[in-house]
Amino acid sequence: MPAETAPTVACPTCGGPALFAPGNRWRPFCSERCKRIDLGAWAAEEFRVASPEPEEEGPPDGQGA
């Protein structure tokens, strides 16, 4: 796909324009800096997948009051 026809997307980190083409080695990011910021956020566990709260269970059979 020629660079002229490649779509431009918003960089997930800074929101700036990022060329979504094989010529952009950091795609979908606009730069290596933005890619590293995103990687750091994942490493610091800033991005998490929500899960339902586990239901509270009573004590196992044979134990408790």
Q: Could you give a quick summary of the protein structure above?
A:
Zn(2+) binds at residues 11, 14, 30, 34. The chain is of the alpha+beta class and 65 residues long. It contains one helix and two strands, in the order E-E-H.
What does this structure look like?
The structure is a single chain. The protein has 65 residues and is α+β, with helices and mostly antiparallel strands. It has a domain at 8-43: Erythroid Transcription Factor GATA-1, subunit A (Erythroid Transcription Factor GATA-1, Chain A). Helix content is 18%, strand content 9%. The chain is built from one helix and two strands, in the order E-E-H. A two-stranded antiparallel sheet has the order 1-2. The mean pLDDT is 85.
Please state the overall shape, judged from the principal axes of the Cα atoms: elongated
Q: Low-confidence segments, ≥5 residues, pLDDT <50?
A: none
CATH names the topology of the domain at 8-43 as Erythroid Transcription Factor GATA-1, Chain A
- Give the SSE string: EEH
What is the CA–CA distance across the termini?
Answer: 70 Å
* Average pLDDT rating: 85
The CATH architecture of the domain at 8-43 can be given as 2-Layer Sandwich
Helix content: 10-25%
Strand order of the largest sheet: 1-2
Largest sheet: 2 strands, antiparallel
The CATH superfamily name of the domain at 8-43 is: Erythroid Transcription Factor GATA-1, subunit A
| Number of beta-strand segments | 2
The rounded Rg comes to 22 Å
As a percent range, the share of strand residues is 5-15%
Q: Please give the count of helices.
A: 1
Output the structural class: alpha+beta
Q: What is the class of the domain at 8-43 in the CATH system?
A: Alpha Beta
